[in-house]
Amino acid sequence: MPTLLDKIWAEHVVVRAQGRPDLLYADRHFLHEVTSAQAFDGLRMAGRTVRRPDLTFATMDHVVPTDRNRSRPLDDPVAEAQLEALERNCEQFGISCLHMAHPDQGVVHVAMPELGLVLPGLTVFCGDSHTSTHGAFGALAFGIGTSEVEHVLATQCLPQARPWTLAVRFKGVLGTGVTAKDLALAVVGRLGSGGANGHVIEYLGEAVQGLSMEGRMTLCNLSVECGAKAGLIAADETTFAYLEGKRYAPKGADFVRAVEYWRTLHSDPDAR
């Protein structure tokens, strides 16, 4: 019987050919200033444009100073050049960008969920390994390389070999002072730094269901530390409560219908 990964994957295969990776559709493509500049240069050199700028969202986060001073230009000329390139590229290709002074600006793995851009059942790609964070919402989310960033920008699709599945089940409830990071470290300690290579981990069990959305994001974020491609947690009432009212989440009757569908996105009890 199908796993959660099976269900999401089946909904997003655009082309399947013998002996080749599946071509997956990208529901969301997130960008930041470090891994996108060369991808945009590749588009310009090939005379291509961005296929779906409305599904592409950028934020400045990796080189943004952590103190209160957000004046430009930055003291670091390389960092300033990266920010300028992102600004220029987003303006040219019509992509929404959370600039340093934007009130919604933040780390890409946090700012985008806070806006309701990550929803259960979506595919989410970003040029950052910890894109696995978004799996906390029941989305298939993983990091991609700069050449893959260019491919998604140009086609809104990504060639991808199907990963293996791995279930990690936490029984019982968390004791006082035990956090999602402790769960993640337990997994890494058990599997090793490469023990989940080529797999998508689905986290199950009472302890996972008891986590807040922030805790679930932490757990999925750290999936890559044991080599996993992504982490997944099926959406539930905690997920729905977090998403309701978010700017880009469905509203009203659309939200009700969305929740009905999201409830179907879980691994079957006898899934292997």
Structure, described:
With 272 residues, the protein is α/β, with parallel strands linked by helices. The protein contains ten helices and eleven strands. It starts with a helix and ends in a 10-residue tail after the last helix. It has helices spanning 4-12, 37-46, 77-93, 108-114, 146-155, 180-191, 206-209, 213-221, 237-243, 252-262; strands spanning 13-15, 22-25, 28-31, 56-59, 96-98, 123-126, 140-143, 157-160, 164-169, 199-204, 230-232. Strand 9 (164-169), helix 6 and strand 10 form a beta-alpha-beta unit. It is globular and about 50 Å long. The chain has a five-stranded parallel sheet with strand order 5-4-3-6-7, with helices on both faces. A three-stranded antiparallel sheet has the order 1-2-8. Strands 9-10-11 form a three-stranded parallel sheet. Helix 2 (37-46) packs across helix 5 (146-155) and helix 6 packs parallel to helix 8. The longest helix is centred in the first third of the chain and has 17 residues, at 77-93. 35% of the residues lie in helices and 17% in strands.
Question: Could you name the key traits of this structure?
Answer:
five-stranded parallel β-sheet; globular; 272 residues; three-stranded antiparallel β-sheet; alpha/beta
Strand content: 15-25%
| Gyration radius over CA | 19 Å
Q: Number of helical segments? A: 10
- Summed over residues and divided by their number, the pLDDT gives a mean of 96
Q: In total, how many beta strands?
A: 11
Low-confidence stretches: none
Helix content: 25-40%
- Let me know the largest β-sheet: 5 strands, parallel
Give the SSE string: HEEEHEHEHEEHEEHEHHEHH
Tell me the distance between the termini: 7 Å
The strands making up the biggest β-sheet line up spatially as 5-4-3-6-7
Structural class: alpha/beta
The outline comes out as: globular
